[in-house]
Structure formats: C-alpha cells, structure tokens
Design a protein that fits this description.
Chain A is of the alpha/beta class. Chain A is built from 11 helices and 11 strands. Chain A starts with a strand and ends with a strand. The chains are: A alpha/beta (263), B mainly alpha (42).
Chain lengths: 263, 42
C-alpha cells in the first residue's frame, strides 16, 4: 500500500508526488473535526497556515506520520517541539513567497502614501463628475523618493522589499538579531539599528519577521509612539507582531500617517 | 478609517508563486517519503 499524503486543501498548480496516494482536501476549509479525520493514517500532511498542527492533530494522524509540509514560509501554526519530539520533519516554502510578498508590501506602502483607497472611492462617487477636476491641494499624499525605510526582520522577504526601494532612492535601515551583510553592502548600504532608533528615524516601516514569542507585540503602544506623524507602517508578516489595539489607537490619534495590513 | 489599507493575507497569492509553493511542498513530501533530506526542513 502506498503511503498517504493528506493535503488539507485543494492546491494551485500540479500536485505530483511519486509513490504516494494523494488524499486531496476540498477547495474550501475542512472543519477541525473533518481535518482530524482527513489526516488519519497519513505519512505526510500538507498543511495551510490556518490549520493548527498540534499534539491532538499529530495523535489523530497516527504514529506513521513522518512529515508536515507547510504551504507557507511561516510555521507558527505548527507545534515544532511536538513534531521534533516525535521525529516528524517540518518543512516550509521559502523563496516562493519572497517576491510576491515584497510586491504586496510595496503595493500597500504606495496605497497608503498616495491614499489609493480613498481616491478610488472618490473617483467612483457622483461627487467627482459633478465637481470635475480636483484642485492642487486635494488628495495630496506622500512621495516615496528619498524616504527612510525601516525593514524589521532581515530575511529574504525583507531583503526583497529593501531591494525594491532602491528605485526610489530610499535610505534603508534594518532591525535583526544579527548583522546581515547582504543588507549592508552596495547597492543597499543599509544600516543595522535597534528597533527604537529605527522607529524614530523611519518614514516607512515594513515588517518581515516571523511570529515568535519575542516578536509578538513587538510593535506596541510604546514603539508606535516613537514614530513620526508622517510615518507609514506596513505589515505583510503575521498580525500579532503588531498590537492591533495600540495601532488602532495610534491611527486615530494621528501618531502615524497610515497603515497597510496584509495579515 | 481611511488611512488604513487592508488585504486578506494575499502576499504570496500570485499564480506563478503559488504554483511554485505547490512544487515545493510536493518536493519536500517526496523527499520525506523517500527517506531523503527534505530541502526545506525548518
């Protein structure tokens, strides 16, 4: 009998795993109970970020389980310790998400800087044809040229976001546990800073760190208060890195200019 | 709030990249089943 690969959801592209019996999930999500049933007897589970891979699920799969392949770069949905204790290999999908996420970070930065959503709403409203061309002081946003960009988390995605900023001549600062020479050498010539210093200096903050106990709530009321009122914050990583209530309060109070969130 | 732009965690949601992710999970799953080192072990 071929080993079973239980895939929690229908995947894009072509699924090809030789010498395996594929148990494909549905287009939509399985309920937790259905998922526990779906993984029963699997040698490998292919999981999506919203599925909690915990002890209960590993038990439901059974002792033949050898691997969990997450369809994501982050693995915060997986109990890594429990997997290690059972000798279960965990994998992710780095590189594949890098360019797409970096593009989206810039999409959000630009959308906030140039008030895209607001402008779109206005352009669709009857007010626009009624009034005609806007005056020179209306819908004035911010340029990107020469801004200081703070990258929080100097991995592949952070690097790709910083690389794109060269097109606007941005000055790049980065926050990481250790120094990253790929950031510091030309053409990026980025400077390694502490989070607090970076928050003080940044015009644009883009978050690209994994969600860990250390990064949870790292952007909070105290660190947000360091931002200049013209600053833009973008999070395309994991929501809980930013204290949501603190961000909402900061936006209402005008502590920063705007935020873009893909979490 | 007009100064917030939201998207529903679609960072990697471009056709080519999502297909690459499928290729990667398949490659990793295949390696694990074959008893080889998985290329993207975390």
């Amino acid at each position: 009998m071929l080993p079973i690969v239980a895939i929690s959801r229908d995947l894009p592209g072509t699924v090809h795993i030789p010498h395996a019996s594929i148990r494909m999930g549905p287009k939509g999500s399985l309920t937790r109970a259905e998922l526990l049933e779906h993984v029963k007897g699997a040698a490998v589970i292919i999981s999506w970020v919203s599925e909690k891979i915990d002890v209960e699920l590993l038990d439901a799969a059974g002792p033949q389980l050898k691997g969990v392949c997450n369809f994501a770069v982050g693995t915060d949905n997986i109990d890594l310790k429990a997997c290690a204790a059972r000798n279960i290999t965990v994998t992710n999908t780095p590189n594949a998400v890098t360019e797409g996420t970096a593009d989206l970070a810039w999409l959000l930065i630009m959308a906030v800087a140039r008030r895209l959503i607001e402008a779109d709403r206005y352009a669709r409203s009857p007010e626009y044809p009624a009034r005609g061309t806007l005056g020179p002081t209306e819908f004035v946003g911010q340029e990107l040229t020469g801004k200081t960009l703070l990258i929080v988390g100097a991995g592949r995605i952070g690097h790709a976001v910083a690389k794109r900023s060269l097109a606007w001549g941005c000055r790049v600062l980065y926050v990481a546990r250790s120094r990253h020479w790929d950031f510091e050498l030309a053409p990026m010539a980025a400077r390694w800073v502490e989070l607090d210093e970076g928050m003080v200096q940044a015009d644009i903050v883009s978050i690209h760190c994994p969600l860990t106990p250390e990064t949870r709530g790292m952007i909070n009321a105290r660190t947000l208060a360091l931002l200049r009122p013209s600053a833009i914050l973008v999070n395309t990583a994991r929501g809980p890195v930013v204290d949501e209530a603190a961000l909402a309060a900061a936006l209402r109070e005008g502590t920063l200019y705007g935020a873009g969130l893909d979490v | 709030m007009t100064n917030v732009t939201l998207t529903p965690h679609i960072g990697s949601a471009a056709a080519k990249f999502r297909a690459m992710m499928t290729d990667m999970v398949c490659e990793n799953a295949g390696a694990i089943l074959g008893g080889e080192a998985a290329p993207n072990r975390v």
